[in-house]
Specification:
Chains A, B: This is Acetylornithine deacetylase/succinyl-diaminopimelate desuccinylase-like protein. The structure is a homodimer of 464-residue chains. The first copy, chain A, is globular, with a radius of gyration of 23 Å. The first copy, chain A, is built from 14 helices and 19 strands. Chain A has 464 residues and is an alpha+beta fold. Chain A starts with a helix and ends with a helix. Chain A has helices at residues 4-13, 15-26, 38-55, 125-146, 168-174, 176-179, 222-225, 232-241, 264-276, 296-302, 342-355, 381-394, 408-417, 442-460, and strands at residues 58-62, 69-74, 84-90, 111-114, 117-121, 152-158, 183-186, 198-200, 202-203, 205-214, 220-221, 305-314, 323-324, 327-336, 362-371, 374-375, 399-401, 421-424, 439-441.
Chain lengths: 464, 464
């Protein structure tokens, strides 16, 4: 009977094809939050359905009022009757943003040798096409060598993660029985260090708000009326500037209701991790305002934040236009910790804005997302098995870490299906996810695939 | 010999053609601040050259490194040897802005009957194609009846007024002898009330600044780094929110250096005007912050201001993008009063911004414009003649007023050619100049043309 080494050899052998296919997938512009991405979304969904079918999955495209999901099943040969593993990834990507800010073609990836690494650039290179490709290729190699899987496998690929997962809750509710299994592996998270793997066992909640402040008039000539009429840029700037106090705390009334201090055991573990290495060393923290009394890691993993993602009003150039705009728009995201309710946070924010609006001006809000923070159990046997598998591949202990990011799916799977989730992934801080020149490298792709093979092997040998 | 009534009759007779031609001119998209406007600029310049030539002017297109000017001359028959009148208008227009904010086609004007007025909408309808058309048609009618002009006439039409008049100073310097005359009539200003004409004898200076704040990193994932990294929207909002204090005064150090209090005689005249009627009644002043201790009219005409014209950063939609942007941009304009030097004001602002930048962040500035305030002499005989002419047409006294707007030309003509300027125009507050649905009406066009005929007649009978 073949063993794990045989599967790892199959992974190694197939790398040229693995890379070629991945670059093909990255070249599909599957942007979910912009209508221009719709053809790319559909193309990527079919592409993935075909790949999963080729490995032997019963794979189908599940349509939603938004973008489709791919749901694929395969029976297990070892723990077939009882155990089931769900692998989650998302195939949609963020918008490009400002095209001129990219040095590389966001949808024309190539392998480039840089600093001894084989890098590839592209929107979705890191978040999250390479990531989902690690487990699909791991499953492929396993199947190729063993002729089957060590457990019943469910693969779930989402097409709306970057646009708020609006249709995911209804899908999970509708397919709750089909999704039932023992553990969900969410492959959309990061490593602790470039060569030290991690399980993310704490995720933040997420709320998006789009706020538009309307002045009491439409656009006006700024010379004629600038001295007397409401300027929505000025009003919006004042509101945004009031969100944080001088200590970097959120000044929105009620924002911290229900938030407990970070437990001392967590603070200690995180402090020990920080002493070992600084995962933020590639990021210039100058100019940032970290909440007083907290280390950077505590602020990111353990404290709720308000982030401004975009602002627009009036003249966008290229030349000058002497106008007082009629309205100004800001987009904000809120990252929540345990104890915070997304809809209550939304209401606090809206109250905060309304209370600061001058007479005669008005505000319109458009909300998206709305998920709570989740914490995963450290003592789950799958957590331990996954940690062992990662450790064997990377040769260093697996870190149990928190995150500043959010995966609304985790809360929904827990609430609806009763499923615990473990986030495993191989993103690094300088992958520029969501930014221009998003990137990944072939070494992490390779070791990522091998990691999943080792995790499957550990799961196969788990005592149940 | 024909008299003024004959010329006025010719104006009345020709109105259908006058309107038809004007709508044709407005339909040319002569946007000066955006490269897309270049063909429209060139078309409008030729159109106007042809019209002036048809009236008997020696009209030429003067090229510049930017957009061309039209300079036209005609000899006088009455005061030919000594007196010369310069008529200034600009044929370029503001950009459309947000196209969806317009109810009417910005470049497809039609006459619509509304509230008993015959209105037409379009970019440049009010600012300033109808305005320049009033004096061209006035001159045409005069010439048609008299066969010549009562004085030597210079017509100067600019194509860069809405984009900073960057090439006007060099042109004036180069053509200073050709521009020498007795008075310049600048037709780019407003009435006091819908049926009460005005001479604008005080204009503000103007400085534009485009400010970009760069954070210490490029775009970052807002979940991963929002708690710790600099957010340029937050920094820029803080800077913009600090520009005004609670009393509506500008908190930029040095901004008021050299600014004297508004003289009491001016305050008294303006207060008397305000008691008579409220020219701002169509504007909702709620939410505006008027500098403490000043009436709205004093703030507009007599006090310097800082106005935010535009802001842009990060996600512009349509969907969400969870990003901390790498940079944020704001566009501001400064309206100056006597005693303020434009370049000193620019420096004050840049110092203000730099002193508020967190460590690791930087700012880039792009400056445009730079003109001082000007005040015109009340006792100039042409001021008196023009006031008499306007009064005869409108049947009510002509108001000598200030303005919140700026016409950099006035300072340049004074400094370089020693020429005094009188701003006369027929704009009203609800013409929405620079905004969507910019408009004008045929009654003002008609009476505006007649006004210039009466002014020419007064000038003809001036004692010299």
């Amino acid at each position: 009977m073949p063993d794990v080494e045989d599967v790892l050899k199959e992974v190694d052998r197939n790398m040229p094809t693995t890379i070629e296919k991945l670059l093909d997938l990255i070249s599909i512009p599957s942007i979910s939050s912009d209508p221009i991405g719709k053809p790319g979304i559909e193309q990527a969904a079919r592409w993935l359905q075909d790949e999963l079918s080729a490995i032997g999955f019963e794979a189908r495209i599940v349509t939603t009022p938004g973008h489709p999901l791919i749901l694929a099943h395969a029976g297990g040969t070892t723990m077939a009757d009882t155990a089931g593993l769900l692998f989650y990834g998302h195939y949609d990507v963020q918008p490009v943003g400002v095209a001129e800010d990219w040095t590389h073609d966001p949808f024309g990836p190539q392998i480039l040798e840089e600093d001894g690494r084989h890098r590839f650039y592209g929107r979705g290179a890191s978040d999250s096409k390479s990531q989902l490709w690690t487990f699909i290729e791991g499953l492929r190699a396993w199947k190729a060598v063993h002729g089957g899987f060590p457990a019943r496998i469910i693969v779930l690929l989402e097409g709306e993660e970057e646009s708020g997962s609006q249709n995911l809750p209804a899908f999970i509710e509708a397919c709750r029985e089909e999704l039932a299994c023992d553990i969900a592996f969410i492959c959309d998270s990061d490593m602790w260090l470039p060569h030290q793997p991690a399980l993310t066992i704490q995720l933040k909640g997420l709320v998006h708000e789009k706020l538009t402040v309307f002045a009491s008039n439409g656009d006006l000539h700024s010379g004629a009326f600038g001295a007397v009429a409401a300027n929505p840029i000025r009003i919006l700037s004042g509101i945004l500037a009031a969100i944080h106090d001088e200590d970097g705390r959120i000044a929105i009334e009620g924002f911290y209701d229900g938030v407990d201090p970070i437990p001392s055991h967590a603070r200690e573990q995180w402090a020990a991790l920080s002493r070992q290495a600084d995962p933020l060393e590639k990021i210039d923290l100058r100019g940032g305002v970290i909440e007083a009394g907290h280390s950077p890691l505590e602020a990111i993993w353990g404290r709720p934040t308000v982030d401004m993602n975009g602002i627009t009003s009036g003249n966008q150039g290229p030349g000058e236009r002497s106008v007082i705009p009629g309205y100004a728009t800001a987009r904000l995201s809120f990252r929540l910790v345990e104890g915070q309710d997304p809809e209550k946070i939304r209401e606090c924010f809206r109250r905060f804005v309304r209370s600061r609006l001058p007479e005669g001006c008005s505000a319109e809000f458009e909300g998206a997302n709305g998920s709570s923070a989740v914490t995963m159990p450290r003592d789950n046997p799958f957590v331990k098995a996954a940690a062992r598998g990662l450790e064997k591949e990377w040769g260093v202990p697996t870190v149990l870490k928190g995150s500043g990011g959010s995966i609304p799916l985790a809360q929904q799977l827990k609430d609806t299906v009763g499923l615990d989730c473990i986030a495993i992934g191989f993103i690094l801080p300088d992958d520029a996810i969501h930014g221009p020149d998003e990137r990944y490298d072939t070494e992490r792709l390779h070791k990522g695939i091998r990691s999943w093979v080792r995790i499957l092997d550990e799961v196969q040998h788990m005592k149940r």
